Amino acid sequence: MARTRRVKSENDAFYHVMSRIAGKRFLLKDPRIKRIMVDSLRISAEFSGVKICSYVIMDDYFHLTVEVPTIETALVEIAKNLGTVPEKFKWKIAEEEVMRRLGVLKGEKRAKEIAGYIKMLRKSKQKREAEAEIDRYRVRMQDLSQFVKTFKEVFNIRFKKLVEYSGSIWGGRFKSTIVENEHYFNNCRKYIEYNPVRAEMVATPEEYPWSSAGGAARGEAFAVKCRNYTSSLIIGSADGNGDSPRKQGEESGVDVTKRVPQVGLGKILGGKEFVRASAIEFSAALYGRRCRPKQVGGWAFSSHGHAEVAA
């Protein structure tokens, strides 16, 4: 059966992301490599305009929860931080912001070289070519797939500098699950931070240094930023399927001590009605799969999804 296409919203959205090392090898076991991975994550998120909300780096895989704002939302936030107003009907990341992000990704020296090249194109009256050069980087921003691609590229280069290694590092494409709203998203964040505890590596999430929980406990700036994340996005209903958050949320004591495969394997996570509605909305991407919303962990529903909705 052909693999399903990725479920990605054209609106602001929350996602759970997971990827595994090829052959389930423990290539990430070395603490130095885990440090490189966390730093690559920070750099790639800043460049891409994606918000990392939690992460955990295990020996052979990683989990992330991310918020991917649209370009429109990103521009409003950028303007707010600058104390300005975004230009209406011109929804493009400004050149200055593109160059700033390039400085984070490639270093200030390389960013200045690129800016100089663009300036040279304009000086020689090649305005279209100059704009096309900027657009090469714009298309890599505010997009889930482009973010993960950038993250892996940054990590792969650094990894191969540290370790003499040839061949593929990653086992196929990454898995992603679209999450209904911040209520379910927060539960998902809590669930993935508990991975090292479920693996019996530590007693509490805060004891594991290569996660947002452990990094924040040690005062690491990036991890603290992830841990302090709050969203201004309004996505989906307040509670998913008519139940109050107290019935399904953290207030009712979400049990994250048990492994729930569907949290990482499903395409959609949230309330039952959200899963069903999303299966229809994304039916073109989920051909060949029936939607059977399945309750997971007692706090959400998950499914691979398909337009032919099953009871």
Blueprint (SSEs and pairs):
Blueprint: E1 13-20, H1 31-48, E2 51-57, E3 61-68, H2 71-82, H3 95-106, H4 108-123, H5 127-138, H6 144-162, E4 175-179, H7 182-193, H8 195-198, H9 212-217, H10 221-227, H11 245-248, H12 262-265, E5 268-270, H13 272-281, E6 294-296, E7 300-303
Parallel strand pairs: 4-5
Antiparallel strand pairs: 1-3, 1-4, 2-3, 5-7, 6-7
Helix pairs in contact: 1-3, 1-6, 3-4, 4-5
* Helicity range: 40-55%
Q: Proportion of β residues?
A: 5-15%
State the oligomer. Answer: single chain
The major beta sheet can be summarized as: 7 strands, mixed
Structural class designation: alpha+beta
Structure description:
With about 300 residues, the chain is α+β, with helices and mostly antiparallel strands. Helices cover about 45% and strands about 10% of the residues. It contains 13 helices and 7 strands. Strands 2-3-1-4-5-7-6 form a 7-stranded mixed beta sheet, sandwiched between helices. A hairpin with a 3-residue loop joins strand 2 and strand 3. Helix 1 packs antiparallel against helix 6 and helix 3 runs antiparallel to helix 4. The longest helix has 19 residues, at about 145-160. The chain is globular, with a radius of gyration of 20 Å. The two termini are about 25 Å apart.
